[in-house]
Specification:
By secondary structure, this protein is of the alpha+beta class. It has 21 helices and 22 strands.
């Protein structure tokens, strides 16, 4: 087949431009990424060869070979792994297959314009799983020659990183992939054996197969092994340094941050398996991908099997990275049968318990560090409250929330400190039998919501729930220590007597108020379910709440945005009898000649309540007209 020139995917073009024109303080990361990819290719062939031994026949000693050539100014990275077909080369090297590629380019460009440190660029590359392109950090041209195991044809992929690449038939002895980097003149240090030894020892010592440096005469027997070449998780914990853990985490996660927590343990007894799991410091870019899978690698007797074992870990722990190696599963089990393997399910259950226990210890011993974890991964962990009833008690202990308490009501930092449910319950008022909460899009905005004024005035603390999943788990968990969860923004509030410390405020005459409510109901019609005097308002004039049997208004807005419902149900308009505006309108309602004006004023009240809820008025033009008329009247009265 003749040589064919193809264009990169748009996001790849942006990425390559940034990589090729940036100077990084950690240039050697390119070698770590390419060695890691080669190791993965060998792992995948080792697994396929279990059921198809012919794929690895005649060359079963997997390895990665580095071959520098100072005269030609090239660095070759060779492996005898699974290899790639022509289409694999196009799919894997011509596009960014993982989700979030467009977001990657946008974030990277934004950091450039903001003058961010260039090392941040490297961390973003790791997050988005596009480490191959780091080859262009040191190269002005890259060639990839690959032959898929079991196939006779080999293919050459070539690019200078300027927007296109070429594909042409090639020759290669045996399966695997050869990457040839044409190193730029200013990066010739990476052609020096001493530099390669240092980089491999620092970044790839944990790779579980030999990484060798080819001798100048090319004889395989003279190759120098540069790494320990043993699976890190098989070593005793006391023999592994924090630096080795960090490098292994970055290898297995294709990340550049440090692990926030490391779990290295060996289980013996009815089930035997070794675990080396990491909690990242930074949020992976695909954390909210629709597939919601936990990409932890499963090994059986140190043979890589899959990184998509759905039975191993639940989706609410999908931020975990690492490996699980077991002796208790047959090596020849298919990936389809693996999802239903009862042994794997038992291992998975034990792993979840272990991970949650370690998080609980961290929360007790280092609450400030745990707060950072929760800010990053809490929205994901809370999915388990809704999905996993077997671990719900453990998850409730781990959950942390923003809240606003009466004493912090007007403070700048109100709601900034995270609280546990145990802490909330420990501060309950006498005879308080409910845990009050309010949901919305932003915790800071929820702090000033009119719907919680009455709760705070009576001394009740209110949880501020601002993650989408909060709308679902609060209805699924049931009472916590006998205290039921009650929404402060749904149904009629039964808060009892007025707060003893509250100022005595003049309220609208009961007869006038009744007339006002009747007129508002008549004028607003189907725009509201009901109009009633409020017990929850102390400072604001009005608020809009959901009926007792309706969806919470925040949830309804979410479902409407997703196209799952056609419209947000009409809410209940609550008015504050003690507010000067409501008192004035109540008096106005007794003037038969002015009642027509109440139509516009009532609709302004409803629009005000909608805006406080984060919604738009139903008719923005009419809202603007009414507001202009009211302002004109106010100005005229002052003139």
């Amino acid at each position: 087949m003749a040589e064919q020139t193809l264009a990169f995917q748009a996001e790849v073009t942006k990425l390559l431009h940034i990589v090729a024109n940036s100077l990084y303080s950690r240039k050697e990361v390119f070698l770590r990424e390419l060695i890691s990819n080669a190791s993965d290719a060998c792992d995948r062939l080792r697994y396929e060869a279990i059921t198809s031994p012919a794929l690895a026949a005649g060359d079963s000693e997997f390895r990665v070979v580095l071959r520098p050539d100072e005269k030609a100014r090239t660095l070759t990275i060779w492996d005898n792994g699974i290899g790639m077909t022509r289409q694999d080369l196009i799919d894997n090297l011509g596009t960014i297959a993982r989700s979030g590629s467009a977001a990657f380019a946008e974030q990277l460009a934004a950091r450039k314009s903001d003058g961010a440190e260039k090392t941040d660029d490297v961390s973003l590359i790791g997050q988005f799983g596009v480490g191959f392109y780091s080859a262009f950090i040191v190269s002005d041209k890259v060639e990839v020659i690959s032959r898929r195991a079991g196939q006779a044809d080999a293919w050459r992929w070539t690019s200078d990183g300027q927007g296109t690449f070429t594909i042409v038939e090639a020759e290669r002895n045996g399966r695997g992939t050869t990457i040839v980097l044409h190193v730029r003149k200013d990066q010739e240090e990476f052609l020096q054996p001493g530099t390669l030894r240092r980089v491999v020892k620092a970044h790839s010592d944990h790779i579980g197969l030999p990484v060798t440096l080819a001798a100048k005469d090319g004889e395989a027997k003279d190759e120098e092994v540069l790494n320990a070449a043993s699976a890190l998780w098989t070593r005793p914990r006391k023999e592994v340094t924090e630096e080795q853990y960090r490098e292994f985490y970055q290898h297995v996660a294709h990340a550049f941050d440090d692990p926030w927590m490391t779990i290295h343990a060996k289980a013996e007894g009815r089930l035997e398996y070794t675990t080396l799991l990491f909690v990242p410091t930074m949020r992976p870019a695909d954390l909210f991908h629709s597939e919601r899978k936990a990409p932890v690698r499963l090994y059986v007797r140190r043979v890589f099997v899959t990184d998509d074992a759905k039975a191993l870990l639940p989706s609410y722990l999908r931020f975990l990275r690492g490996v699980v190696d077991t002796e208790d599963i047959a090596l020849n089990v298919s990936r389809e049968m693996l999802q239903h393997d009862p042994v794997l399910a038992r291992i998975g259950s034990a792993l979840v318990t272990r991970v949650l226990s370690e998080l609980e210890k961290k929360a007790e011993k280092e609450p400030e560090e745990y707060a950072k974890f929760w800010a990053t991964f809490g929205p994901v962990v809370k999915e388990g409250l809704y999905e996993d009833s077997t671990k719900r008690d453990q998850l409730l202990k781990l959950a942390r929330f923003h809240s606003v308490a009466p004493e912090a009501r007007k403070g700048e930092g109100a709601g900034d400190k995270l609280v546990s449910l145990a802490e909330y319950v420990g501060r309950l008022k006498d005879k308080q039998d409910s845990i009050y909460f309010i949901t919305g899009d932003d915790a800071a905005a929820l702090k000033s919501s009119p719907q919680i004024e009455g709760f705070l005035a009576r001394g009740y603390e209110v949880l501020l729930l601002s993650d989408p999943v909060d709308e679902f788990w609060v209805t699924a968990v049931g009472p916590y220590e006998g205290k039921k969860f009650v929404s402060a923004s749904q149904g009629a509030a039964d808060l009892g007597a007025a707060p003893p410390s509250a100022e005595k405020k003049e309220a609208a005459d009961s007869g006038e108020l009744a007339v006002l409510i009747a007129l508002l109901k008549q004028n607003l019609g189907e725009a509201v379910q009901d109009v009633r005097a409020s017990e929850r308002l102390t400072d604001s004039a009005v608020c809009l709440v959901a009926g007792a049997n309706d969806l919470p208004r925040h949830l309804a807005r979410m479902l409407r945005a997703q196209g799952q419902i056609q419209a947000t149900p009409a809410g209940v308009l609550e008015i504050n009898p003690s507010h000067a505006l409501i008192r004035g309108l109540a008096k106005l309602s007794m003037n038969a000649g002015a009642r027509g004006r109440l139509d516009d004023l009532g609709r302004l009240l409803l629009d005000q309540a909608r805006i406080r809820e984060g919604e738009l008025p139903n008719d923005i033009a009419a809202f603007a007209r009414r507001m202009a008329e009211v302002m004109t009247e106010a100005v005229s009265a002052k003139a």
